[in-house]
Structures are given as C-alpha cells and as structure tokens.
Amino acid sequence: MNPIHRRLLLIAALLASAALTLTALGVSGLLWRGRALPRFASAVLIGLLVLRFTVPLTILGSDLAFKQLLAEDYRSSQQGITNTASELGRQAASASQAGASAAHESTLDRLKHAATLPDVRAYAERMQLAADRAVSDLIRLIVSFLMQTLVFPLLLMWLMLSMAKQALLAAANRPSPPAIQRR
After folding, report:
1. Which terminus of the chain faces fewer neighbouring Cβ atoms within 10 Å, N or C?
2. Residue 182 falls inside a structural domain
3. Phi-psi region of 108 (alpha: psi -120 to 50; beta: other; left: phi over 0)
4. Nearest CA to 145 among 59, 54, 66?
C-alpha cells in the first residue's frame, strides 16, 4: 500500500475514533448528570460506531470467509496452472527435440517419419486438454478473487449497515427516557 494511502487511512481511523470517543463521553456526561438525551444523540453514536467498526470487521470477516470457503480451491487452481505450464513446456521441448533430430536425418528418413505421425494428433489433443485445464483453473482463480475482494466485503458491509439501520430505527422509535432526578 502506498505510504500516502496508509497515512490517510490512519488519519481517518484516528478521526473516527476521536469523534466516537467524544460523542460517547458527551452522551455519558448527559446521562450522568441526569439529563434527557436528545433524539439524535443515539443516532450519532450508532452511526459513529458503524463508521468506526464496519471496515475492520468487513476485512476480518471477508478474510475468514475466504479461508473457510475458497482458500483450498484457490491453491489448487494456482497449482493446476503451474502444472499445466510445466506440462506445456515439457511437451514443447520434446517436440522441438524431435524436430531437431529430424533435421539431421536424410530426406527419405524424414518422409518415413512424417508418414508415421499419428502422435501429432495425440500431441494436439494433449495440448488442447492442457489449455482447457488452464482456462478452467484461471476462471476459478478469477471467481475466487472476485468473491474475496468484492462479494464478501460488500455482503458483510450490507449486513452491518442493515443491522445499524435497524438499531437506528429502534433508537428513533423509542420514547425518550425521563430525566433522572439527583438528590
């Protein structure tokens, strides 16, 4: 991460924490003095709590979901692509060695060899199967990446914001508590 971005994130986290702390202290001070809370105080407090904890909890939840649901498939897809690349490299090397050895043969030997090339079709089929496996593994990697970076975080953020909305609605619909009389 860019140092400027890291610094901006740190400043934003500090500002959100400071705003949350000051609001919590203000609400606590009002309650301690026995005064009634303004209706917006609980909404501001809940909003700041959501702001402060949504991003870290989304990151942690997304990472946990990836580890539990997709990590093994991701690793196997990466290994499959690595294996396919090595297999294609070995097949290309063996084909070039066969071509190099054929260059030293006489024309008659090359014609005999060309007449007995049924393994060209087998070679093409092996290459096609390897390419199909690589494409399948690549698609699984892309899906895993999108799930980890977009779907899980957005789903968790939506869930947290929905819960916050319910908490705000509940706070807005409750009657204000009467002021506490201190003696």
Report:
1. C
2. no
3. alpha
4. 66
Task: Please state, in angstroms and rounded to a whole number, the distance separating the CA atoms of residues 53 and 45.
Answer: 12
pTM for the model stands at 0.59
DSSP 128-153: HHHHHHHHHHHHHHHHHHHIIIIIHH
- Identify the domain containing residue 10 by its residue range: 3-173
> Which two structure tokens, joined as six digits, stand for 107?
């024309």
What are 34's two structure tokens?
Answer: 């026995």
Q: Which amino acid is at 3?
A: P
Q: Total structural domains in the chain?
A: 1
Question: Is residue 14 in some structural domain?
Answer: yes
Closest CA to 87 of 140, 126, 120: 126
CA distance 164 to 46: 7
Nearest to 52 by CA among 16, 21, 5: 16
Structural domain includes residue 181: no
Specify whether the CB–CB gap between 164 and 45 falls below 8 A: no
Give residue-wise pLDDT tens across range 127-182.
Answer: 888 889 889 999 999 999 899 889 998 999 899 889 888 887 887 777 655 555 55
The pLDDT tens digits for 31-56 are 888 888 787 887 788 888 888 888 77
| Residue 178, domain member (yes or no) | no
